[in-house]
Specification:
TIM Barrel, 9 helices, globular
């Protein structure tokens, strides 16, 4: 089933030019010694609707090259390609959108740079920030850390499903729960109001990334 595009109040809208915001976002794992492309390929073949290209330790050129390769794979599978943090790389590569964190461009200027047609995500950890991001033009919110995670250092204490619920209740745009997410945790996150989830380790560290992606997608379908 295709994920519906949600309007500002969370209701289905008429078709719009922006790519869909899927319920599963697979984020590239670019930690030293890891090749994200085979994982991305496996996830897309399993049906992942969104790939977020993140490479905080990569140079602009390296991130651009990776984005171009991921975008090619995404387009072959009808999936959405989003670049984290660096909107100029997203634009240069022709990606479908971008995601900004708390130390990146504010949402309003990010929307102005990205344009009206691109998908724009933003990180939020509290209701006030979430409401401001929605007002300023974000299409979805990445909310976390939902749980403890080893794939990113320096994060605040986990929000838990209760924290995710507080953010989700404050906005009418999709909330994507991130950090420490596993298939077994999907039901409680969706029950808390999350629209979907974003993962790194649950797929990249799996013995079989294809099967891990299928498991997450099945959990998301069953918990809806």
């Amino acid at each position: 089933m295709q994920d519906e595009v949600l309007g500002r109040e969370g209701e289905p809208t008429a078709p719009c030019p922006r790519p869909r915001i899927g319920r599963l976002h697979v984020i590239t794992d670019t930690r030293p010694g890891r090749d994200p492309l085979p994982v991305v390929r496996a996830a897309l073949e399993a049906g992942a609707p969104v790939v977020q290209v993140r490479g905080k330790e990569l140079t602009d050129r390296e991130l651009y090259d990776l984005t171009c390769r991921v975008l090619e794979l995404c387009e072959a599978h009808g999936a959405t390609c989003i670049v984290d943090d660096r909107i100029h790389v997203a634009l240069a590569a022709g990606a479908h959108g971008a995601h900004v964190g708390e130390h990146d461009l504010p949402v309003g200027p990010a929307r102005a740079v990205l344009g009206a047609a691109g998908v724009l995500g933003a990180t939020a950890r509290d209701p006030l920030t979430a409401a401001a991001h929605a007002r300023d033009g974000a299409d979805y919110l990445g909310v976390g850390p939902s749980y403890a995670t080893s794939t990113k250092a320096g994060l605040p204490a986990p929000l838990g499903p209760e924290g995710v619920a507080r953010v989700a209740a404050a906005v009418g745009i999709p909330v994507i729960a991130i950090a420490g997410v596993t298939a077994t945790r999907v039901p409680e996150l969706l029950a808390a109001g999350a629209y979907g989830v974003a993962v790194i380790g649950a797929v990249s560290e799996a013995d079989d990334p294809h099967a891990a992606t299928e498991l997450l997608l099945r959990a998301l379908d069953e918990a809806r």
